[in-house]
Design brief:
Length: 173
């Protein structure tokens, strides 16, 4: 199978479990790009993830960067299409008929189940990125503090972002 087709199919299949966006499937993207196909090292994957998060735009940029790293601009286009096309079509069809399904029991199950699924996938992504990065105890302590404050207080997230930015500017993390 050609590399371009392999890229497209790999991301096409991942797209069907990408509730919560591309960030939610980072562990699976990592498995495909680093473990299964050895297209890049864990360090390179982490760097591409950091670039995708720092750049403005959608989180799916990580897929484009992986595709570009693996097979140039053709890889970038096919990886992105593979990731975006299936769910775009599926969601378009689903929302066209969503109102007609208001009495179907499965509709409530879908609405209740998607949010926890997305949160769990995003949390797994965060754990993977932390494990792939070099251990930075100050950064990990800041993450733990942020999680603790988010769960225990009603402190607005922007204050936590400001705290992290201030500590970063001071060179502490």
């Amino acid at each position: 199978m050609s590399l371009l087709l392999e890229l497209f199919i790999s991301f096409f299949l991942v797209a069907f479990v990408s509730f919560g966006g591309a960030t939610a499937v980072i562990p699976e993207l990592y498995r495909i790009a680093v473990t299964e196909h050895a297209w890049m090292s864990a360090q390179t994957f982490t760097e591409l993830f950091a670039i995708a998060q720092a750049a403005p735009g959608p989180n799916v940029l990580i897929v484009t960067l992986i595709g570009q790293h693996v097979a140039g601009w053709s890889g970038a286009v096919l990886a992105t299409l593979g990731m975006c096309l299936p769910m775009s079509v599926l969601v378009g069809i689903l929302f066209k008929h969503w109102d007609r399904l208001q009495h179907w029991r499965g509709r409530a199950a879908i609405q209740l189940g998607v949010a926890p699924l997305a949160v769990g996938l995003v949390l797994a992504s965060g754990v993977l990125i932390v494990r792939s990065a070099a251990p930075d105890w100050a950064g990990m302590a800041l993450v733990a503090l942020t999680i603790g404050l988010s769960l225990r207080t009603r402190l607005h997230p922007l204050w936590l972002i400001l705290l992290g930015a201030s500590l970063g500017l001071a060179g502490l993390v």
